[in-house]
Amino acid sequence: MKRLLAYLRPFIPRMSLGFLVKVVGTVVELAIPWILSYIIDDLIPLGEMRPVVFWGMLMILCSLIAWGGNITANRMASAVARDFTRSIRHDLFTRISYLSERQVDNFTIPSLISRVTSDTYVLHQTVGMMQRLGVRAPILLVGGIIVTLTLDPVLTLIMVATLPIVGAITFVVSRKGAKLFKIVQAASDSMLRVVRENAVGVRVIKALSKSSYERGRFKKVNDDLTEKERTAENTMALINPVMSLLLNLGIVAVIVAGAYRVQFGLTKVGKIIAFMNLFTIVLNALMAINRMFTMLSRAAASSARVLEVLDTPDELWEAEPKFSFIPENVPHIEFKNVTFRYSYGSFEVRGLNFRLERGQTLGIIGATGAGKSTVIRALMRYYDVAEGQILIDGVDIRDYATSDLRKKFGVVFQNDTLFKDTIRENIRLGRDISEEDITEAARRAQALGFIEEQGGLDAPVAIKGANLSGGQKQRLLVSRALAGNPEILILDDSSSALDYKTDSKLREEIRLHFGDTTKIIIAQRISSLMHADIILVMDNGRVIGMGRHDELMESCELYREIGESQIGTESGATA
After folding, report:
1. How far apart are CA 32 and CA 65, in angstroms?
2. 428-473, pLDDT tens digit by residue?
3. What is the pTM of this model?
4. What domains does the chain contain, in order, with CATH numbers?
5. DSSP assignment of 323-343, as one string?
6. pLDDT tens per residue, range 332-342
7. Measured CA distances, 385 to 95, 98, 341, 382, 500 (Å)
C-alpha cells in the first residue's frame, strides 16, 4: 500500500488545496441549521423583519459558498484521480512490458489486462471518492455532533449512542467484503479470458458452427462472476439497512425526547428543527462513510493485484552488461548442452548443441510441437534455460543488457502481429529507420508491389492486418525484420502463405543482400531451408538429425519422409 501512496505524493499540493476548499464549504454548510435555529428561537419572537431578512440572506450566502466550494473541490478531486490513475497505469503497462514470458504465463494475459483496466479503474474511483467524501463526511459527522452539543447536549447523547454499534457493524462487514471482492476480480479474469478467446477465434467458431457452444461457455463464466458479485454486494449491502434502522430509531427517540423537553420548557422548537436537520446531515455523512468502506474493500483487493505486478522482480533483464570485450575467433551463435522446460507443462527441449558462424544459415524442421519455436524463444531470452549456455559472439546472452541483445535480431514470429497504423509505421515500428531503408526492405521482402497497390506506405493497416491477405501480412512482417539490417535474422514459419515463386525470390534477395547476417529459418517446406548450411531436425524436444540437406536425406529417416512426401512439389519449386 505504501507503494501506491507514493503515487499520490506528487499531487499533495493540489489535494491540500482541494481539501481546504472542501473544509470551508463543509463548515459553512454546518452553519445553516444553527442560523435557522437562531432565526426561529431568537429573532422571530422579536417581531422585527430586518434581522430575519439579514440572517436569511446570510443562510443563502452560506448555501452558495457550500455549493460552489463543493463543485470546485470535486472537480479538483477528479483531476487528481485522473492523473494518479494515468501514472499508475503507465508504470503498470511498463512493468508488464518487461515481464519475462514465464511471468506472463503465470499471471496470464487476461488477468494482466484486467489489472491494467478494471483494477486501476477501481483505484481511480477510490481516490476520487476519498477526496470528495473523505474530507466532507467526517467533518459533517464530527461537526454535526459538535453543533448539536451546543444546541442540546441531552438529545445529542441519544444520537451518539447509536454510532458505536454502526461503526462495529461497518468494520466487520468491510473486512469480509475485501476478501469477497478479491474473489470477484479473479472471476472477472476468467470471464475476460473467455471473451478474448472468442474475439480472437471468431472465424473458427463460425466455421465450425460452435456459436451456441461458446455462448454457453460465456454464460457459465458470466453467471459465476454475477453470483460472486451478488455475494459480495449483498454482504456489503447489510450495512445500509442496519445503519438506516439504527439512525432512524435514533431520530424517533430524539423527536420523542425533544417533545417532552419542549413541553417542560427545557428546550425550544427552533433547536428541535435545527437538530433534525443536523441529524439528517449526520445520517448522510454516515451513509457516505459506508460507501467509502465499500469502495475501500474493492480497492484493497484491486491494489493487491496491481502491486503483485508492480513488485514482481526482474527475472531476466540486466541493467548493465557483465563483460568488457567480445572474444575473437568464436562462433556467432553457440548452444552448449541447452535444456529448457516450461513452468506450466512437462515439455522440454533437451541436450541442444550447435554452432553457427557469422553469415551462416540454420534451418529447423520438425513436426508441430517438436520445440522449433522454443529454440528461438530461448535464443532471444524470453525464457532462461534450465541447463547449459547460449552464447552470441562468445558471450552468454544472460550477460548482455536486454536492449543490446534485442537489437541484434530481426524476427518474424510464427503468429506475429500487425498494428492498426500505416504500412510505414508497421515496418518502422518506432525505430530510427530512414524512408529509403523502409522502401528497400519492402522491395527485398517482395512487398513493394502490393504496397503500391494499397496506396503506398501511408496506406492504413487494420487491427491485426485484417485488410491484408495472409501472404501480404507475411511479406510486411518480413519487411519489418529486414528494415533494421539485423545481425541475426529469424524467420519462424514466415513463408507458409507465400507461393513457391515468391518464396524463392525472397530467399534469393536475403542470400544476396544479407550475406553477413546469420539466419535462422523455421519452416515446414524443405524448399525453404534445403540450402541452409546446417539443418536441425527436431522431434519431441530433441535433435534427431543435424547436417546439410543431402546428408540428412541419407541419414535421417524423419527428414527423408518429409522430403519424399514433398518431393513432387519441391522438385517443381526448385527446378
Report:
1. 11
2. 988 889 999 999 999 999 998 899 988 899 999 988 888 888 889 9
3. 0.67
4. 2-310 (1.20.1560.10), 333-574 (3.40.50.300)
5. -SSPPSS--SEEEEEEEEE-T
6. 999 999 988 77
7. 22, 18, 8, 10, 36
